[in-house]
Amino acid sequence: MAETVSDHTTATGPGAVSDSGLQVTDLRVAYGRRRGRVEVVKGVSLAIAPGETLGMVGESGSGKTTIGRALLGLAPVAGGTITFRGQDITSLPRSRRRALARDIQVVFQDPYSSLNPSMTIEDILVEPLRVAGVADGRTRVRELLEQVGLPDDAGERYPNEFSGGQRQRIAIARALALRPGLIICDEPTSALDLTTQAKVLGLLRRIQRETGAAYLFISHDLGVVREVSDRIAVLREGAIVETGDSEQVSLRPAHPYTRRLQLATPVPDPDVQARRRQRRRELMEAGA
Amino acid sequence: MTAELPAAPGDTVGRPAAPRGRRDWVGRLLRNPMAVACMVFLLATVLFGLAGPWLAPHPPGATQLDAVNARPFTPGHLLGGDGSGRDILSRLMWGTQRTLFACVIILCSAVIVGVPAGLVAGYRGGAADSLINWVSDLVMTLPGIVLLIALYTLTGPNLVLAMAVFGVLVAPSYVRLVRGVVLGVRSELYVDAAKAVGLSDARIIGRHILWAVRAPVIIQSSFVLGAGIAIQAAVDFLGLGDPSKASWGVMLQESFANIYTNGWSVVWPATLITWTSLALVLLGNALRDALQVGASRHTLPRRARQRLAALLAEKAGAELAEEAATERPERAAAGEALLSVRGVRVAYPSTDGSAAEVVQGVDLDVRKGEIRGLVGESGSGKTQTACSVLGLLSPQALVGGSVVFDGEDLIADPAAQARARGRRIAYIPQEPMTNLDPCFTVGAQLVYGLRAVRRLGRQEARHELLALLARVGIKEPEHVFGLYPHEISGGMAQRVLICGAIAADPDLIIADEPTTALDVRVQAEVLDLLRELRDERGLGMILVTHNFGVVADLCDAVSVMRDGRIVESGDVRTVLRDPRHPYTQELLSSTRVVDLAEVATDG
């Protein structure tokens, strides 16, 4: 990639190299052993300051979900370091990770499989509190339900009584339970309808204002990422190809891959879309 | 289809369906007459055995000379006496106790050994999994009865030990079952979420995994108990039981030796063994039905179904008549339509006799060479509408209205629909991967599909399909022809399905979210391909989608659906630029437009 992108492997931003945020340096994740070994993340560096949202876009297989899972300790880290609030958390054993659970939380893509169908909403929300030894769980559950805009009596009900959007609110409430400093949002709105998407994104932004949590917002949808992110990193085949300010990356992308990704996203106007199609063809013919 | 469902899907004919709780599997079990009969029988058997010490008329070993080979209904010996003059009824009661005790031992040892081993193997994986699988395979190869005979020579008749050993021999069935379930649950996101909040493994297994394992273990236990009774009887029958204590098997063995002088004495233990095993197996089946209900809707009795269908047809008919009376100007153009959908309704009956209408009177026209977008959110009925054209709705669905294709009403004439489907009306599905059979090569599936609708030789079909594969943009058609579905990418799979759809040279294509499962770059390529095919072949197309960008890219006309109705319909430029209906406006305003700065300033 002989491109004009100045700094194509690091997504370090204004708040970088601080002791208060997340710092990932040359992260590598590989699955399988010996000959079947596949490196999914190939040396990714990024930083997220407190209260900031870093958007991460990429196609399927680009390794974006794996990076999120590595931060949560759910993927095998083969190299590099992850530090959070000055502490190296690269490969903590599970027992030590429990303390960290307070700080890094997650909202998954699929609101159907991310909630145990046999537990009431209250049980789901109390679980993290109980692990952390919070005494007055019930009060906190009511607070959480209110915070994500669900009715008080939601606690006694089961996940199958809620719609996709409401389930995602429950998942967000669970992530908020321990007042984390960083929430990994792994395609949190991809399974939702348009109008629901807008509401859930609005909720995530409001919560960020209220709690000051930082987000790593992972999505394949440039439009969604642009709406919530301060900065955007574009991932391709396990490496970051472009990173920068949200408006710059989404409207004036420098890397040809980002441009193609951008132009491939259809817009709801037939004539503008026809022009974009033309541009995309030219770009492809140019061999990008 | 995921996402925000409306509180009540559409309006309902009759009463709305009551929500189904999760604890009502007991209720479902009790509504099954077979299950109730089995449970009553098993309960009676257990009570019969437990009551032995108090109610048995005689001690199990007491012999009376006058009762030797007594016939049934002899005074004092209701079921007669055996060859040694012992009362059969009394021995049966005592024997029941012993047999049931043996079965409980089998069950307990199998569950205690099998379930934890399965949990560890499934949850831990790796070396533990390999070891447990190896041991369990080894145990499975051991011949059970032979082992028990060998054990007998060492320990003599020892019921508890023999049954415990047998339980261990059965344990691999639990190991495999539990391991399979755990492997599935382990990859559920809620287990990842539990890890992320810091739950220990023990707590994750206790709170999340054991629950999932519960139902299959209960079902399996019923079958194991049934098998246990048969095995216990078999072991005793072979003479490995303790002849001094009554059990069903021992009684069967003794009466069998005596069969020519007292045939009746065989009947009682044999009946109990057979019936109890049968009851347990049938109960296991009923438990499976009750505990593992899929999303399957219960079928209504025929008469109730017919009543609902008539109601729906009447509603659709009335609407059509009304429309015909007030001839609207836009319908003048309908004459040249390739496909003309009028007043289509789709409803699903629920068990209480009402029906949820998911499509409530949809009108739609597609002309030759026209691509009609059908846009809506999940639950709007767009896929149901498309499937009603193809006749691919689930068998429970009730359909009303008319779908006129080339002069024939496909809803009124299912045979015409079957003739048109796959030949003149083709289908492109949403999930390319799940629509290819993993057991066959891409080529074999395409050839099979094409030869089902056209009379062609194998070589001819192959030849034609290779050319078409090249046409839909597959680089090395010969190579791809011999690949299995898991060896190709999602985008390639969708091209293969498009190739299959156009192979029969259809006039109309129904594409149900054909690009939703694909990455945007692949989506753009597939949309290009669909556009080119339309231009080349003059195809009409219904494109079901939730994405207005896709509509703008490909469609000529668009209809917006909400809650089973079309709220706005028209030329794509008019609808997208100047939406009239508030719902269309809301949808469009939630659509994010991210345009390149350079393109935005272009025109």
From TrEMBL, chain B:
UniProt record, GO biological process: transmembrane transport
Domain spans labelled ABC transmembrane type-1: 96-284
Subcellular location: Cell membrane; Membrane
Coiled-coil residue spans: none
Membrane topology term: Multi-pass membrane protein; Peripheral membrane protein
Residue ranges occupied by any ABC transporter domain in the UniProt entry: 341-588
Listed transmembrane segments: 29-51, 99-119, 131-153, 159-177, 209-235, 266-287
Keywords: ATP-binding, Cell membrane, Membrane, Nucleotide-binding, Transmembrane, Transmembrane helix, Transport
Annotated SUPFAM superfamilies: MetI-like, P-loop containing nucleoside triphosphate hydrolases
Protein name per the record: ABC transporter
The species this protein was found in: Streptomyces caeruleatus
